[in-house]
Amino acid sequence: MDEDQTLMLSALQHYAYCPRQFALIHIEQVWEENRFTAEGRVLHERVDSGIAEQRRSTRYERSVLLQSQRFRLTGKMDLLEIEEDDPPRYFPVEYKRGKPKVEAWDRIQLCAQALCIEEMRSVQVSEGAIWYWEVRKREPVVIDGVLRAATIAVIEGAHALLASGHTPPPIEDKKRCRACSLVDLCEPEAFRRDHSADYINELFPQ
Ligand code: SF4
User: Fold this and answer.
1) Pocket of ligand 1 contains residue 177 by CB under 6 Å
2) Nearest CA to ligand 1 atom 5
3) Which of 90-94, 186-190, 198-202 has the lowest mean pLDDT?
4) Which residues contact 73 (CB under 8 A, 6 or more apart)?
């Protein structure tokens, strides 16, 4: 594995959503914007003021640059709330265009941000939140051992896939493919058809 290889924090969400999507974007360097990604980009531009603010005992840092040497990550977070206490309480907040999900994709990205903050500022981050634009709701996230383990597994998987340079086959979840910005480039149905034809040919050679 390339020890100098660094991953963007946002790439973790691509990997967690679909390793093929991650490979298409970060190995093959293709990108197609759809309504979901465009709305997400506009939302992040709106909150990306970069201005820190103090309100009572809480400091709000926006567009904070993040880095982890241990996990070889780099990126930016939307908002870091720091509550003056002894010790101070660090609370990452990520903005998302959609609504809360059962799957852990968004929580994994937030946890990876927490890992970076812990390394950069020598602190412990035990909770954070994701603010969902569509439902105007702030969803609390506990940065516990289970989420940390899932996040580290995604980081390691993404690094390994990037180092391999290979693009894996489509995932089985067709619903996820329908919401994917890369569906036209990826052509998962064509891949699945070809794959099942190969399988039938293997079973019944002519
Ligand atoms: S269309 Fe489906 S298989 Fe292809 S990249 Fe998107 S989610 Fe993955």
Assistant:
1) yes
2) 21
3) 198-202
4) 6, 7, 8, 9, 12, 66, 67, 112, 115, 116, 155
